[in-house]
Amino acid sequence: MLTLIQNANVVGYDEILSNASILIRDGAIERVDATEYLTEPDAEVVDAAGAWVIPGIIDTHNDSLETEINPRPSVELPREFALGNYERRALSTGVTSSFHAISFANIVSKGRTIERSVEHARLAVTSPNTLIDHQILHRCDVWTPEGVGPIFESLSSCSVRAVSINDHMPGQGQFRDLEKFKEWIRAYRSDESFDADAEIERRMQRIDRERETVQRVYNDIAERNRNRDTILVSHDDDSPEKVDRMVELGATVAEFPITFESSSRARERGMWITVGAPNVVRGGSTSNNISARDLVERNEADIICGDYHTPSLLLSAFVLVTQGYLALPAAIRMLTANPADAFDMVDRGRIEPGRVADLVVIDEIAGSPSVRMTMRGGRPVFSVDRPVLQLT
């Protein structure tokens, strides 16, 4: 299969190639040429008409699959239906590779169990005829030791082995502010008699009573990852000491650092640093923690992930450009080349010969990016020009 994209503004790793063409053969990029209207016999031609072309977005942490399956705590929709819905939403925002953040924990308030998490992960990585490269970011809750075994069993089915180490107990991490923690847990409770103060006290007592649990989970992870063949991701680090502990465990990625002290230590220790796209777009954290824009300004952010809002991904890069934080190639790297490098996906993330032709054609409408076409392996899998319904 031969495809030729003409008249494109190609966003490269560190420069923009204006009025260029991209030749794709059998799903891979064969040539990137400064010729506006390169010709190639027998090629199917896509006229970009001056639009931007970027690599397909690699989303390293996305919560949407779980919420597609469980849109409300008491509701569970068919998993195949939920996965298809997620794909359509993601492709329309330029995502071609997605790490579904799945919690391997028993969360009663959300109707989730470890067993269901195993099933959700299996569905994502084994479903046939998918249009996105589905990967799993296995969320390991440090207070759920029984989840570690199922996580490492699930990793055997994944082409990229990735685990995020999570601690969402109050008084630390994302929830150093106990009032914010109250708001968070109340959001998942419909019972008007629910006592948030009593719930916090119960959890704080558990922390005091079961402190050895966290170390036991750390030890289990270290034992199972002796070959260091799993990408470990620290989560919500709130101190330099926490960062150091995660690096000792083998973590190479720090997602959502909570303080400048922890982000600076992550940079010193050579970690990739991930921020959330909604934080970039909004200009601040929903938990009153540090702003992702400030981390970008401090050169302490490398990757932007979708987190809880996939549509913010592409817009976040353009916000950083329009607000003067980064040039466009550097902003796009945070969605493409940097996550590819951090998660060892070396076949994608750049518009270069030999790379997989995961590409996104983007128009700017009223100053905001709008995806016109998403290609996976050189094949269009989303296009606004494709009729929704064709009458014959």
Task: Describe the protein in words.
A hairpin with a 2-residue loop joins strand 2 and strand 3. The protein has helices spanning 64-69, 79-91, 114-126, 148-155, 178-187, 196-209, 211-224, 240-249, 260-268, 277-282, 292-297, 312-322, 328-333, 337-342; strands at residues 2-11, 16-25, 28-33, 44-47, 52-55, 57-62, 95-103, 133-141, 162-166, 231-235, 251-255, 272-276, 303-305, 359-365, 368-376, 379-383. It folds into 2 domains: 2-54 and 352-383, Urease, subunit C, domain 1, CATH 2.30.40; 57-342, Metal-dependent hydrolases (TIM Barrel). The strands form 2 sheets. Strands 1, 2, 3, 4, 5, 14, 15 and 16 form an 8-stranded mixed sheet that branches. An 8-stranded parallel sheet has the order 6-7-8-9-10-11-12-13. Helix 8 (240-249) runs parallel beside helix 9 (260-268). It is of the alpha/beta class and 392 residues long. The model is unreliable at 387-392 (pLDDT under 50).
Short descriptors:
Urease, subunit C, domain 1, eight-stranded mixed β-sheet
Q: What's the average pLDDT?
A: 90
Helix tally? Answer: 14
Helix content: 25-40%
Order of helices and strands: EEEEEEHHEHEHEHHHEHEHEHHEHHHEEE
Distance between the termini: 28 Å
Outline the fold blueprint.
Blueprint (H helix, E strand, L loop, with lengths): L1 E10 L4 E10 L2 E6 L10 E4 L4 E4 L1 E6 L1 H6 L9 H13 L3 E9 L10 H13 L6 E9 L6 H8 L6 E5 L11 H10 L8 H14 L1 H14 L6 E5 L4 H10 L1 E5 L4 H9 L3 E5 H6 L9 H6 L5 E3 L6 H11 L5 H6 L3 H6 L16 E7 L2 E9 L2 E5 L9
Parallel strand pairs: 1-4, 1-5, 6-7, 7-8, 8-9, 9-10, 10-11, 11-12, 12-13
Antiparallel strand pairs: 1-2, 2-3, 5-14, 14-15, 15-16
